[in-house]
Write a structure and sequence with these properties.
11% strand; mainly alpha
Length: 127
């Protein structure tokens, strides 16, 4: 479920729909008008949020109205807070049996002389 929630929240337009629904319950037509978004697009984002368990629906006068299941967001927030509390340990290249070329710190001033693997390991990026 968490993966589905994160996947839904990875789309900026879906987050825009979520932000509106956090403030007020809407049907698809209303959210479409509120966000100046085509109804089909708004519906797609609402479906993604609902499939992830972030939205709950209620039938009002033959229209489905959506509201946010805040418990899902609170749980995700708690999980992310726990992840942020994990302490990073220094890598012990001897203990994990790294290849010899990874055991000594990189002394290259410019990354153009490094292999792709060295760029990631020593410099934290590939470019």
């Amino acid at each position: 479920m968490k993966e589905t929630v994160l996947q839904a929240l990875s789309n900026s337009e879906t987050v825009l729909v979520l932000n509106a629904l956090l403030k007020k319950n809407y049907c698809v037509n209303a959210i479409s008008q509120e966000l100046n978004m085509p109804k089909e697009i708004a519906s797609k984002h609402i479906k993604a949020l609902a499939d992830a368990g972030i939205l709950m629906s209620e039938n009002k006068n033959n229209f489905m109205h959506y509201r946010v299941n805040r418990e899902v967001l609170t749980e995700l927030s708690s999980d992310l807070r726990e992840l942020s509390q994990i302490n990073e340990e220094k890598c012990d290249t001897e203990e994990i049996n790294c290849p010899q070329n990874e055991k000594s710190p990189c002394d290259a001033k410019e990354t153009q002389d490094c292999s792709s693997e060295q760029k990631i390991i020593c410099h934290g990026h590939q470019s």
